[in-house]
């Protein structure tokens, strides 16, 4: 049984590991994690179509087409996914003919190594759902242990009674 508390560091270079590079259709979860890994962690400048563009921490500059290739999804599925994330206040995004700019909402809560405070609301919801499931499993496990202990006591008492009667 795992208790999910605290943080792990997941280096972006994991994307070049043979496990990650396996060709597959991404799940929405994998796509979300991938967007987090694609996000800039420092301010940078990019040259896009002869224009210098500043990319801030938590931003991803890409295109719908590149996301389609990366996730092995259709154009429609990528756009629906981005709109779903935006509806849930996980990202904001804007697309034009040259690029798509995705901004991770509360990016610092996913990235800031010094921050040990309250997690982002989506992380909190996942943890709470897992905790509820874990608590149920722990209760079931305790009940099973109690039942086994009770059965062992009954079995020992029966054996003791048989022994006392001389069987």
Structure description:
By secondary structure, the chain is of the alpha+beta class. It has 2 domains: 12-114, Winged helix-like DNA-binding domain superfamily/Winged helix DNA-binding domain (Arc Repressor Mutant, subunit A); 118-167. It is built from 6 helices and 5 strands. It has helices at 18-21, 28-38, 64-71, 75-87, 107-111, 121-165; strands at 44-48, 51-55, 59-62, 91-95, 100-104. The strands form 2 sheets. The protein has a 3-stranded antiparallel beta sheet. The chain has a two-stranded antiparallel sheet with strand order 1-2. Helix 3 crosses helix 4 (75-87). It is globular and about 50 Å long.
Radius of gyration: 26 Å
* Portion in strands: 5-15%
CATH class of the largest domain: Mainly Alpha
The CATH topology of the largest domain, please?
Answer: Arc Repressor Mutant, subunit A
Q: Report the helical percentage.
A: 40-55%
Strand order of the largest sheet: 3-5-4
Distance between the termini: 44 Å
Shape: globular
> How many strands?
5
- Low-pLDDT runs of 5+ residues are none
Number of helices: 6
- SSE topology string: HHEEEHHEEHH
The biggest sheet amounts to: 3 strands, antiparallel
Class from secondary-structure proportions: alpha+beta
CATH superfamily (homologous) name of the largest domain: Winged helix-like DNA-binding domain superfamily/Winged helix DNA-binding domain
CATH architecture of the largest domain: Orthogonal Bundle
Mean pLDDT, to the nearest integer, reads: 78
- Whole-number tally of structural domains: 2
